[in-house]
Amino acid sequence: MKNRNAMQHIYIEKIEIGAYYTYDKKQNKVYDLKGMRHDFKQLVKKLKSK
Q: What integer pLDDT is reported at residue 10 of this predicted model?
Protein backbone atom coordinates (compact mmCIF):
# COMPACT_ATOMS: atom_id res chain seq x y z
CA MET A 1 0.00 0.00 0.00
CA LYS A 2 1.44 3.37 -1.03
CA ASN A 3 1.64 6.36 1.28
CA ARG A 4 -1.21 8.69 0.27
CA ASN A 5 0.66 11.79 1.51
CA ALA A 6 3.44 11.19 -1.00
CA MET A 7 0.96 11.70 -3.84
CA GLN A 8 -0.37 15.09 -2.74
CA HIS A 9 0.61 18.22 -4.62
CA ILE A 10 1.61 21.30 -2.67
CA TYR A 11 1.04 24.76 -4.11
CA ILE A 12 2.01 28.18 -2.83
CA GLU A 13 0.02 31.39 -2.96
CA LYS A 14 1.50 34.73 -2.00
CA ILE A 15 -0.63 36.65 0.50
CA GLU A 16 0.15 40.20 1.55
CA ILE A 17 -0.92 41.73 4.84
CA GLY A 18 -0.85 45.43 5.60
CA ALA A 19 0.92 46.82 8.66
CA TYR A 20 -0.94 49.69 10.28
CA TYR A 21 1.14 52.35 11.98
CA THR A 22 1.12 55.94 13.05
CA TYR A 23 3.74 58.28 14.50
CA ASP A 24 4.12 59.34 18.11
CA LYS A 25 5.24 62.76 19.33
CA LYS A 26 8.91 61.84 18.80
CA GLN A 27 8.22 60.80 15.19
CA ASN A 28 8.71 57.08 15.99
CA LYS A 29 6.52 54.54 14.22
CA VAL A 30 3.93 52.97 16.47
CA TYR A 31 2.34 49.82 15.03
CA ASP A 32 -1.30 48.90 15.63
CA LEU A 33 -0.66 45.30 16.69
CA LYS A 34 -4.23 44.78 17.87
CA GLY A 35 -5.63 45.75 14.48
CA MET A 36 -3.07 43.66 12.61
CA ARG A 37 -3.80 40.64 14.85
CA HIS A 38 -7.52 41.01 14.15
CA ASP A 39 -6.97 41.18 10.38
CA PHE A 40 -4.67 38.14 10.49
CA LYS A 41 -7.25 36.12 12.40
CA GLN A 42 -9.89 37.11 9.83
CA LEU A 43 -7.57 35.99 7.02
CA VAL A 44 -6.95 32.62 8.68
CA LYS A 45 -10.69 32.17 9.20
CA LYS A 46 -11.32 32.96 5.54
CA LEU A 47 -8.66 30.50 4.37
CA LYS A 48 -10.02 27.72 6.60
CA SER A 49 -13.50 28.14 5.14
CA LYS A 50 -12.31 27.50 1.55
A: 85
